[in-house]
Amino acid sequence: MNIFLPLIFRIVSNPLTNVFQKKLTLQGSSSLWINFVSYFILSLICLMNAFFADWTFLTKEIVLYSLCGGLFGALGNASLIKALSCGELSVLGPINSYKSIVALIVAFILLREIPSGVGICGIFLIIWGSYFIFDTLEEGFSIKLLRRRDIKYRLFATVFTAIEAVFIKQVIVLSSALVSFWFWCWFGCVFSFLLLKIFKTSGYKSFVGLKFYVGIVLCTGIMQLSTNYVFENMNVSYALALFQLSTIISLLFGKHFFNESHFIKKLCGSVIMVIGTIAVILG
Fold first, then answer.
1. 223 with 10: CB under 8 angstroms?
2. Cβ–Cβ contacts within 10 Å for residue 246, how many?
């Protein structure tokens, strides 16, 4: 399969998932409950498929990396949904570009992937572009941003999912994109359930917005499978840089579905950040 198609699926499905997640939070659903239901349904689907697999390839390393990936994945997704519940999609989407910076650092430590000078220039462009995004907020591009709940949770999500990506890559190297997806669903389900219990959150009393849950499960499945396939065929940091093209889609969805303002200024900042991601790729 050509890598272009999975990239398109990944770039579009991610912000579309965020739209469904935000709509559910606006209807009163708990972010932790949304997180758990997504993993749980995907886990059931994977069980039917994995039942016929040959498991002779399984090793302790695969389980360990999958365990770590599931933990950071559950934390990252829960943090992202929480951020969406109190923030704008057109602001939170571009922040995801910082993931490539985190991934470069983590990938260097764990995978010995070394960024070039061009890649480092790309990092500075990502930071510069984010100035235009944050300048649309009351706090502006300042340390005060860290006081905002949506920004804090989005940054947590960025760090957690960047670390998660490295562990996913390791599982793919030791097995395959599909096997990595199975373990991502199963361990994500376990840890998202533990988060429900730790924070004593329940959402089973009502299934508000059932169609949005269906949309989340469908889009999340497409997003993660396409992500794994891209990771299987591309350097982690470069793949994450390409994924930032979904920033533009997030802006369009934010304006269309939630009537979010300052579209032109956010678009300018996002374009600069996309140029930064291209610099990272070329590097």
1. yes
2. 24
* Cβ partners under 8 Å of residue 244, min gap 6: 96, 97, 99, 100, 126, 273, 274, 277
**Model pLDDT for residues 195-226, shown as the tens digit of each residue:** 988 987 765 545 567 889 999 999 999 999 99
pTM reported for the whole predicted model: 0.86
**Domain range annotation of the chain:** 15-282
SS3 content of the chain, % helix, strand, coil (to 5): 80, 0, 20
Cα 224 to Cα 24: distance, rounded to the nearest angstrom:
20
Total Cβ atoms within 10 A of residue 110: 14
Q: How far is CA 66 from CA 62, 222, 240, 265, in A?
A: 6, 19, 19, 40
Spatial separation of the C-alpha atoms in residues 176 and 170, rounded to whole Å: 10
